[in-house]
Amino acid sequence: MSHVFLIGFMGAGKTTVSKQVALQLDRPWVDLDAEIEATARKSVREIFEDAGEEAFRELESAQLAALSGADPSIVACGGGIVVRDENRAMLKNLGLVVYLRVSPGETLARVGADGTRPLLSGPGGVLAATRLLEARESLYTAVADVTIDTVGRDIDDVIADAVASIKERRA
Ligand code: S3P
Question: What's the CA gap between 2 and 93, in Å, rounded?
Answer without folding.
Answer: 10
